[in-house]
Amino acid sequence: MARISRNHWPLILNDGEITLRPLRIRDRAAWLGARRKNREWLTPWEATSPVPDENKNLPTYIEMVQIHNREGRAGRSLTLAIWFHNQLIGQITLGGISYGAYRGGHIGYWIDQGHANKGLTTRAVRELTRYGFEELGLHRIEINLRPENTASKRVAEKAGYVFEGLRPRYLHIDGDWRDHLCFVKENPRI
């Protein structure tokens, strides 16, 4: 199985009504609108920096799109918007992609509150996992989530991920180091 190349980016994946594709500059209003509308809903799960000044200097939307495209072309991180009936409803990333002896990565995501608990995030996770296993030849993909995020735990379980263990103070989320549950799925073909 081959490593992702420039020919694979921009990556577009479809699962019936759901399309996963990179953000474009012209998606700015839709992305900013979704983030603004869901700010309170997403804040408890959002990554923050332990260095306060870094939280003030986040990239602009255009810089973010450029970073995602650069990382996607390099095959290090695949960040895709989740579209449902031509509406931007979330974002999903297969990041930390590593080859060699590890051959793995991790998935993170967010979803619009109005589209939560409808199976759409699970479908997006399944599709990106399929791509990671079948096209990239990854052996292992992780989803790390906060213990109190029961909806995200259901997504991981419904997508076939298995609980592996607790990671104490794993990521800086919402202003502090937070414990995470680690769910893993291994490629049955490798």
Q: How would you sum up this structure, described in words?
A:
The protein is of the alpha+beta class. The chain has one domain (6-140): Gcn5-related N-acetyltransferase (GNAT) (Aminopeptidase, 3-Layer(aba) Sandwich), CATH 3.40.630.30. The protein has helices at residues 28-37, 39-42, 52-56, 61-74, 120-134, 150-158; strands at residues 13-15, 18-21, 78-84, 87-98, 104-111, 140-145, 162-173, 176-186. An 8-stranded mixed sheet has the order 1-2-3-4-5-6-8-7, sandwiched between helices. Strand 5 (104-111), helix 5 and strand 6 form a beta-alpha-beta unit. The longest helix is centred in the C-terminal third of the chain and has 15 residues, at 120-134. It starts with 12 loop residues before the first strand and ends with a strand.
The parts where pLDDT drops under 50 for at least 5 residues are 1-6
Q: How many strands, what sense, and barrel or not for the largest sheet?
A: 8 strands, mixed
CATH class: Alpha Beta
- Classified in CATH, the superfamily is Gcn5-related N-acetyltransferase (GNAT)
What is the average per-residue confidence, as pLDDT, rounded to a whole number? 94
Helix % is: 25-40%
Order of helices and strands: EEHHHHEEEHEHEE
The 3D shape can be described as: globular
